[in-house]
Design a protein that fits this description.
Blueprint: E1 13-18, H1 22-32, E2 37-42, H2 45-55, E3 59-63, H3 71-80, E4 89-93, H4 98-106, E5 111-114, H5 119-131, H6 134-137
Parallel strand pairs: 1-2, 1-3, 3-4, 4-5
Helix pairs in contact: 2-3
């Protein structure tokens, strides 16, 4: 995968993946691997928040259920911090409950990706989030 089409400033795209499942973490990292991307990963929500504050990634992929702190709490921390509030966050979860999806989107998540996911869909959503096309990233249309 290449981020050339969204890499308008000739810089690397920074992606942060926060998931406490090592298999999913490595799967997502391998799907998004690109010469144009710097991918950071962590199994810990608290460490993920610290990395978000330090690295200021272009996009964060955040598991909704983490072992140390819930993804919703991390999302809230990211969105209420003025230094990280503009970073698009996509929640990733095997829970496709409409209430949880709408809750995450209402808390400021830019997208909600349900596991198992299609690799092409994941790449497309991440590219849209990095490019700033958040309106079309969600796949939800509100009238």
């Amino acid at each position: 995968m290449s981020f050339d089409s969204v890499n308008t400033h000739n810089k690397f795209q920074k992606i942060l993946i926060i998931d406490d499942n090592l298999f999913i973490l490595n799967l997502v990292k391998n799907i998004l691997r690109s010469p144009d991307a710097i991918i950071s990963t962590t199994l810990s929500g608290e460490e993920g928040y610290e990395l978000a504050c330090i690295q200021r990634p272009d996009v964060i992929l955040l598991d909704r259920r983490l072992g140390d702190i819930s993804g919703s709490e991390i999302l809230h921390m990211i969105k209420t911090n003025p230094e990280t509030s503009k970073i698009p966050v996509a929640m990733i979860s095997s829970d496709d409950n409409d209430r949880h999806i709408l809750q995450s989107l209402g808390m400021g998540a830019a997208d909600y990706i349900v596991k198992p996911f299609n690799a092409k869909t994941l790449v497309s959503k991440v590219k849209r989030l990095i490019s700033g096309d958040i309106q079309h990233a969600q796949g939800f249309y509100f009238v």
